[in-house]
Amino acid sequence: MSSIDPSSNNSHTAQWQRQSTWLAHLRHHKQKLQESGVDGFDLLEAMSTLAIYHKLATRKDRCQKCWHTKLYCICSQLKEVSFKPRGNEALNVNLLILMHHKEYMSAGNSAKLLLQLFPSSTELYIFGKEGDVDRLFRDISSKHIKPILLWPGKEAVSTTDLLHLLKNESAYSQSEQHSLRSIYAIVLDGTYNQARNMYKSLKKKWGPSQIPTAVSLKPMSESVFHRAQKNYGKAHLQHHSKDVDPVLRVSTAEACGVLLHELGVADQDVVDGVIDAVRLNNDALKYSRHHLD
Question: Which positions fall inside the DTW domain (predicted)?
Fold first, then answer.
């Protein structure tokens, strides 16, 4: 069996050499930080922020919105999807996307689609970028409105239970700009393990009393997300109770569409619009395989 010759002149070897150099730089930087007393979450942010800047520097050929290479940019095909609160108990829902730093600038990510589908209702924060978790905490604290956290943990409540709570909970106050009840939903974006680790980190950093109420969803159909091709779409979350029905896993974008629908602020057309955007993103990935992350 032949081994890779580092001196051979081909693109794979060049990429291997760049990655090796970058990893060596990361290890050296981490060691220097640890020697200076940086540890815990501060160390995580310092290393993650360095990785984010590296992505930006090495992916200049990508669209800054859809994160595909500019040749396969899908922005012109992504149309804003409008939804209007309705009913006597109408809600004004805002999506606060907390994206794992490894998902940032990834063309395959679905949450980035929400920034163009719901631009006036969506804000992006990067978990791992220095200051972003603190910025998120300041933002939700300044609203004086109790946020929720989209996370299917064992302590999560259903959207039906949440709507019952809203009727009696003064913390979900009316918006100053609208005669509507406002909900700020923190959405953990990443793989399931990444999202779980983010939840644990937030709980440790903010404390049990400050962590928002977790809310789970009941998706009615399998995911169309490209990662579903690896049985992700049919996978079921592990529950701590045998009495709890299994829940289909869906992408972040699809989950947010389901959330809006279950809260009664969006009809099926909005959910379908999100699904169409996910399919569009899938197609762009197929056409640009040689540019994949």
Answer: 59-279
